[in-house]
Design goal:
It contains 5 helices and 8 strands, in the order βαββαβαββαββα. It has a single domain, classed as 3-Layer(aba) Sandwich (Rossmann fold). Helix 2 crosses helix 5. It has helices spanning 8-21, 37-48, 71-74, 94-101, 121-130; strands spanning 2-4, 27-30, 34-36, 67-69, 77-79, 84-87, 105-106, 112-113. It is an alpha+beta fold.
């Protein structure tokens, strides 16, 4: 399985970015990395010691990967800056179109899922240190 990760500070930054920069209707998405859960567990065990790992499989309704911007939404998405994407709502108004279409770079992916940008183990360790998890 893959999952996205962000630190508490990054989550707060995302909330502030969206509340300050939005004009209404658009969705801000952080351009965040993801990792394999197995790799995350191995990095944590390297740091804290090996523990028994019991694989339980997927729970009902659980997905193998996360999807933040679907193929359909990618047609309405842009790179806001290096750290954020934004998606316009279907049937967006002229104010939104004017604000973003002429100032933002087109979205570079067909979709943005947790397999788009996978961190290696060293990157996972750096992310955990940055977030003060280790």
């Amino acid at each position: 399985m893959t999952r996205f990760f962000l630190t508490l500070e990054e989550a707060i930054e995302l909330l502030f970015k969206a509340s300050i920069d939005s004009i209404g209707g658009e969705t801000f998405v952080m351009n965040m990395p993801a990792c394999y859960i197995k790799d995350l567990a191995e990095v944590l065990m390297d740091e804290y010691g090996v523990v028994e790992v019991k694989e339980t499989g997927m729970r009902p309704g659980e997905k193998l990967d996360e999807m933040l911007i679907s193929h359909h939404e990618s047609q309405l998405s842009f790179c806001y800056d290096n750290n954020y994407f934004l998606t316009l709502p279907a049937g967006y108004n002229q104010a939104l179109a004017t604000r973003y279409q002429h100032h933002c770079v087109p979205f570079p992916y067909n979709e943005f899922s947790s397999v788009t940008k996978i961190m290696n183990k060293q990157e996972i360790k750096e992310m955990l240190k940055k977030g003060k998890f280790i």
